[in-house]
Write a structure and sequence with these properties.
34% of the residues are buried. Strand 9 (135-145) and strand 10 (150-153) form a beta hairpin. The N and C termini lie far apart (52 Å). The longest helix is centred in the first third of the chain and has 15 residues, at 2-16. By secondary structure, the protein is mainly beta. Strands 1, 2, 4, 5, 7, 8, 9, 10, 11, 12 and 13 form an eleven-stranded mixed β-sheet that branches. The chain has one domain (24-186). Helix content is 11%, strand content 32%.
Length: 189
Amino acid sequence: MRLVFLSFTWLALAACSEEPVPAFRPEWIPPASGDGNFQVCVVDAREEGISELRLPAGLLFTSWGQITESLLAGGGHNPQGTSLDEKHSDQRAYGLVTLEPVTLTVRDPCRRLPARAIITENSGRWASIPASLHYLFQAKAGLRVQPDGRLTPARDDESFDMDALIMGLVVGVPLADVGEPLMLREEGE
């Protein structure tokens, strides 16, 4: 009985101590070169020893909620946001795919490039990602989206640093609404 009461008390205190999500500030998105509706950045490139990071076209990004700090510091995120993997039917979770390869460096850690929205059978009703939401997106390691929408594993012979993706060092944010939805399919479909 005492354990249940202590657990309930801890949960009640945790719920009361949630800090409000800070309002979006434009300076969180650093200036970047390139053209497109999506800005991608490598976080802590110098500290992680990344002098150059080449990313392929077809890189899948999933949403993690509203951005709460500078992209170069990882972007933070609203802990109440959801990723596409969680597939909550009552909350909006977004995915997008990059359309061009990009190279990020210590001197140029952020670039703008074109992207398309990804829709699945579970999240198909959101065919556009509004830039006004200021959602943070994180690259998914080990997966590529082919031009026809097939989701495939990244090949070992591809020349990009999978470790940076696994470590969550590649993040992005839409700069303009991301539309032109691409239906995501499994490789065998």
